[in-house]
Specification:
- The complex is a heterodimer of chains A (206) and B (432).
- Chain A is mainly alpha-helical and 206 residues long.
- Chain A has one domain (3-178).
- Chain A has 8 helices and no strands.
- The termini of chain A are far apart.
- Chain B has 3 domains: 34-225, 3-Layer(aba) Sandwich (Rossmann fold); 237-313, Roll (Ubiquitin-like (UB roll)), CATH 3.10.20.600; 318-416, Up-down Bundle (de novo design (two linked rop proteins)).
- In chain B, 39% of the residues lie in helices and 12% in strands.
- Classes of the chains: A mainly alpha (206), B alpha/beta (432).
- The A-B interface holds A 35, 179-185, 187-188, 190-193, 195, 199-206 and B 317, 319-320, 323-324, 326-328, 330-336, 338, 341-342, 344-346, 348-353, 355-357, 407-409, 411, 414, 416, 423-428, 430-431.
C-alpha cells in the first residue's frame, strides 16, 4: 500500500462509517421526536446521543472528503465537497454527496444557534434530514463499488431497512397521537377522574 | 380592622385617605366614573420620565397581588433598564374560579387600574400597553376607556385583549404567548418575560390590583402606603372570602389583619383554603389564629397567594372537595410537561378514590409518591401548586380519610362547595 492508496482506502472506510453513523443519527432523531426511550437510558440521554453522534458523523464526513481530495489517483477539487457539480470525476454521485453535506451543515449550524432562532424555522431546516439521508445513501451506493456487492451490500440494505422502519413508525405514531389539548382529558378518563363521571361525593355509600 | 370607611374626600383635590378602603369605592359596590374618580383622586401624577416612580414603589415595599408576591420595583427596574421597544400588560385574567377580586376591581374602580397602568407605563418607558382579561361584560371598563380618551389623560393608548377561560391563562408567559397570537400556554423560564416577552420586547406583566396600588403610591407616596400593613408586607390587599354559610364577598383587608376578623362564622367551618387552588388548607383552629401576611402564613406552609380565603362548612366532606378541585386542576394542565400531564391525572384519580368509600391502603401512599415525583418539574408552577393543595388536604382531612377507610363519611351535605367552572379543554381552540 503506497501513500496514495492509503488516502483512497481511508476515504472509502470513513465514507462507509459515516453512512452507518448517519443512519443511527436519523433513527435517534426520530426517537427524540417521538419522545421514545432506549433501554436503560433517560430521555435526555437519547437527545444527547443524537447530537453527539451527528457531530461524530460530520467529523467522519470531513475526513472522508479530505482524504478523497488528498488522494492523487483521481483529481477531486476540495470545493466539490460542498459545491455540487464541481468535480469531473463521478460528477453526479459526488454532487449528491456535496448536497447531502450542505444539508447537514445547515442542520448543524441552525442547531448550534437554536436558542436564538424561532422554533418553526429550526424545525423546517431540521426536516431536511429526511431529504439528506436518501441523498447521502444514493451517493454511497452510486460512488462506491464496495457497497454494490457482498456483505457491504447487505450492510447498505440493512441501513435502508432501519430507516424505512423508523420513518414508518414515526408516521404511524404521529397519526395516533392525541392533540396536546386532548391528552389530559384522555388521561383523566383513564384514571377514573374524568369530568362528567359521577363525583366522588355521589359515590359515598352510607 | 378591615371595614373602616373614611370620610369622602371633598373639594376635588387629591387628598390621602387614612384607612380602608383604599381601592374599593367609598360607597360599597358603587362604581366610580371618571368624574367621581378625578374628584376623589385627581389626575394621574405623571413624573415626566421613565424610572422616576420606581424608587417610591421600592420604598413602599409593594409586592405583586396576582399571587406570587414578587417585589414590584424589581420587575419595573428590569424593564425600565432595557432599551428599545417595551410592552406593559395589565393582567386582569383572574383565573382562580373562586376568586373575583380583580373582576370586582375592574368593575368598580376601572380608572384606578388604568391610572396605575399609565403610571407604570411611564415608569418603564413602555411603547405598547395591553389590558388582558376574560371576555364578558365590562361596561364600566369600556366606559372608562371612552371617558379617559375624551379627557386626554392617558400617556399611552391601551389595547384590550381577551384571555381564554383557562386556569393557567393568567400565568405570565401564557399571557405573553396569547398576546402574540398563540395559545395561552406557559413556557419555560428563562427567559423571563421582563427580559424577552411579547415579540422579543421586554414585557412588564402586572396584576390589575397591583397597578391600582401603584396609582396610590404615585399620588400619596410610600409613607402613606406603609401606614397600613406590616413592616415587611405593607399596604392592603383585596381578598375573596367564602364564608361557611355560603356567601362570598370581596374584602379589602390590611396586610397582617387577623383572619378571624375576615371569617364571619368560624363556628360553622372546619377548615380554610388560603391563597387559591394552588394554596393550602388549614384547620379552622390554625386559620383563626393566624394573620393575613406571608410571614405568618409561611409557618403553616401557606401564603396569601391571590387572596382567596374559603371556609369549608363542617357538614361537607373535605376529601370530596379536594378531589373535585384536584380533578379540575389536572384537567387544566397545559399537557406540555410530562410530569404534569401524566402526574396530575394520576393524583386526581387517587384522590377520587380516597374521597370514596373504602379506598385501598396503598392509594394514599401512591398519591404522596406521585406528588413528590411532579414537584419542581414543570415549565410553570402548576404541578407544584397542585401538589401543595393536595398535600395540605391529605394532612388537614386525615381523620376523614381514616373514616373513609372504614367505609364511613362524616359529611351530611353532599352539595359541592367550592365553585368550579363547567367543562374542560379538549381542543387547541379552548386555549385561545
Amino acid at each position: 500500500m503506497s501513500g496514495t492508496t492509503a488516502f483512497w482506502y481511508a476515504s472509502r472506510a470513513t465514507g462507509i462509517v459515516a453512512l452507518l453513523l448517519l443512519t443511527v443519527v436519523l433513527v435517534l432523531g426520530i426517537l427524540v421526536n417521538r419522545q421514545g426511550r432506549l433501554p436503560g437510558l433517560p430521555r435526555f440521554a437519547v437527545t444527547s446521543l443524537h447530537r453527539n453522534i451527528s457531530l461524530l458523523a460530520v467529523a467522519f464526513i470531513a475526513a472522508h472528503v479530505l482524504t478523497a481530495v488528498l488522494d492523487s489517483y483521481v483529481s477531486i477539487p476540495l470545493l466539490s465537497g460542498v459545491i455540487p457539480f464541481a468535480s469531473g470525476y463521478e460528477r453526479l454521485w459526488l454532487s449528491l454527496g456535496a448536497i447531502a453535506f450542505d444539508l447537514m451543515l445547515a442542520m448543524i449550524l441552525t442547531s448550534l444557534v437554536r436558542g436564538r432562532l424561532n422554533r418553526t424555522l429550526w424545525r423546517a431546516v431540521h426536516l431536511l434530514a429526511y431529504l439528506c439521508w436518501p441523498i447521502a445513501f444514493a451517493h454511497s451506493i452510486g460512488s462506491s463499488k464496495d457497497l454494490q456487492h457482498g456483505w457491504m451490500l447487505d450492510l447498505a440494505v440493512g441501513c435502508a431497512l432501519m430507516v424505512a422502519v423508523a420513518v414508518s413508525w414515526r408516521l404511524v405514531s404521529a397519526a395516533r397521537q392525541l392533540p396536546r389539548a386532548g391528552r389530559v382529558a384522555a388521561l383523566l378518563a383513564h384514571h377514573g377522574a374524568a369530568p362528567g363521571t359521577r363525583g366522588p361525593q355521589e359515590r359515598i355509600s352510607r | 380592622m378591615t371595614t373602616t370607611v373614611n370620610e369622602p374626600a371633598t373639594g376635588g383635590a387629591a387628598r390621602p385617605a387614612a384607612g380602608l378602603p383604599r381601592l374599593l369605592p367609598l360607597v360599597p359596590g358603587l362604581p366610580e366614573d371618571l368624574r367621581a374618580h378625578l374628584g376623589r383622586y385627581g389626575r394621574p401624577p405623571y413624573r415626566g420620565g421613565p424610572g422616576l416612580l420606581i424608587n417610591a414603589i421600592q420604598a413602599a415595599g409593594l409586592t405583586g397581588r396576582g399571587g406570587a408576591a414578587f417585589p414590584v420595583h424589581r420587575k419595573l427596574a428590569v424593564v425600565a433598564g432595557a432599551r428599545g421597544r417595551k410592552v406593559i400588560v395589565a393582567n386582569g385574567a383572574e383565573s382562580e374560579p373562586a376568586s373575583h377580586k380583580d373582576d370586582l376591581l375592574l368593575r368598580v374602580a376601572p380608572n384606578l387600574v388604568l391610572d396605575g397602568l399609565q403610571l407604570a407605563a411611564e415608569a418603564v418607558g413602555a411603547s405598547e400597553a395591553y389590558l388582558y382579561l376574560h371576555p364578558g361584560h365590562h361596561p364600566e371598563l369600556l366606559r372608562a376607556f371612552a371617558e379617559r380618551s375624551a379627557a386626554g389623560i392617558d400617556w399611552l393608548q391601551v389595547t384590550l385583549a381577551e384571555a381564554p377561560p383557562r386556569f393557567l391563562a393568567g400565568q405570565e408567559s401564557a399571557v405573553v404567548n396569547r398576546l402574540g397570537g398563540g395559545p395561552a400556554l406557559p413556557t419555560f423560564v428563562p427567559p423571563r418575560v421582563s427580559d424577552r416577552g411579547l415579540g422579543g420586547a421586554p414585557t412588564l406583566v402586572q396584576n390589575v390590583e397591583t397597578l391600582a396600588h401603584i396609582a396610590h403610591i404615585a399620588r400619596y407616596g410610600p409613607r402613606w402606603f406603609r401606614a397600613l400593613g406590616t413592616d415587611t408586607e405593607p399596604g392592603s390587599m383585596l381578598t375573596t372570602v367564602h364564608h361557611a354559610h355560603g356567601d362570598s364577598q370581596v374584602i379589602e383587608a390590611e396586610m397582617g389583619a387577623p383572619l378571624r376578623a375576615l371569617l364571619a362564622d368560624q363556628a360553622e367551618a372546619q377548615a380554610v383554603l388560603i391563597g387559591g387552588f394552588h394554596g393550602t388548607w388549614l384547620p379552622i383552629s390554625q386559620a383563626a389564629a393566624t394573620t393575613l401576611d406571608n410571614q405568618a402564613l409561611k409557618k403553616h406552609g401557606a401564603a396569601v397567594g391571590a387572596g382567596l380565603i374559603a371556609a369549608l362548612p363542617a357538614d361537607r366532606c373535605g376529601l370530596a372537595e379536594a378531589a373535585r378541585v384536584t380533578r379540575y386542576l389536572a384537567a387544566e394542565s397545559a399537557g406540555q410537561c410530562g410530569p404534569c400531564l401524566n402526574g396530575l391525572p394520576s393524583i386526581a384519580g387517587g384522590l377520587a378514590e380516597l374521597a370514596g368509600p373504602r379506598p385501598r391502603r396503598q392509594t394514599r401512599e401512591n398519591v404522596e409518591r406521585w406528588a413528590g415525583l411532579v414537584t419542581g418539574r414543570g415549565a410553570c408552577n402548576h404541578p407544584d401548586g397542585t401538589v401543595r393543595f393536595v398535600r395540605s388536604a391529605l394532612k388537614v382531612f386525615a381523620r376523614e380519610l381514616t373514616r373513609h377507610e372504614q367505609g364511613r363519611c362524616s359529611a351530611t351535605n353532599r352539595r359541592p362547595f367550592l365553585p368550579l367552572p363547567q367543562g374542560m379543554p379538549t381542543t387547541e381552540d379552548d386555549w385561545t
